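Entry:
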Amino acid sequence: MQPGYLHHEMIFTNARLIFPDGICDGFEIVVQEGKIAAIRDRSLAHRKDEVIDLNGNYLAPGFIDLHVHGALGRDTMEASAEAFRAICDFHASGGTTSLLLTTATAPLDEIVKVLQAVRDCRQAIRPIVGVHVEGPFISKAKAGAQRAEFIQDPSPAAVRQLLEHADVLKRVTIAAELPGALEAIELFRARGISVSGGHTDAWDEEARAAFDRGMRSVTHTFNCMSTARRRGVYRVAGLLEFALTEPDISCELIADSHHVSPTLMKMLYSAKGPHGICLVTDAIAGAGLPERSQFALFGKDCIVENGVCLLVDHSALAGSAARMIDLVRMMVREVNVPLNEAIAMATENPARAIGLNTKGRLSVGADADLVVLSPQLDVVRTFCSGEVMSSQ
């Protein structure tokens, strides 16, 4: 996909439009210069060269993935435009038009290389809206597939190093119980960076303290996350229970049926409702590779098996092999979430979580990031700023 907007008018017609509160027939969307210029009653009088007939398919906002490491053997940690483009192109085939390239736990200098590379090429690769730094400020007890030898506390010097790149740093995952974590959360939030609790062994009161300082999200809910356990003779909540019961916390969910079972997904939906969940793929380099393919996650050997990515020794999940449309289908078919609500979890909710004011919605003035879905919820076409990114 090359930069540059289509300057003529485009009319998307004969589609079922998906809004957060329902699905509407009889409307069409007018796009001009990469923006939605109008949503109006369907007209029959058009020049053929400006009309895109969607043949009764669904039309939704493009999906927004807050947590994606890679695809097709390529990884964000490569810090190259070639890798970033391959990742974006693969996820566009699953309806994603905006994403946060997500780093692994690594030396800070390696993470900074990613931040610099994203700054250099995000204008040319439009789906990139910034970076999600997942680690190194995490708990060794909840490291998952992250490399424990690079885990560190959020010292003032380390936080300053990342804040030098606040223009591209959009989200940070942090364990609230680490020394310096509360001060770091406050500093990140002051610069408009979304702070998400994750890879953490925090107790209830530590989670509450992080919330009081500005944490408003949790990372891949249920995975690498503290839960209720005994402290002495008492049972005390962890981050999971805090997140489930705090209305102002947004919960990431890897709804691939591997990371979280349908029953747990139903529990999360019951607790948070349609506005409190952000679907994320947490896809890594194995996404899109054939079954039994082996690859590396920043120095850790991994394998694709049964549609998910594992450490090659099968000791832990390493990330998903999913695209966003796979998660939307799972929420609809296995969790019985209405389609419009599942779409909101992939669009409006993540846009709100990181302050993307012109994305994630079908409304006048919003970016013309659009995905066309068949009645079977397959991606037919994906548009970014009105330009075709992916087509069936």
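Residues 63-353 form a domain with the TIM Barrel fold (CATH 3.20.20.140).
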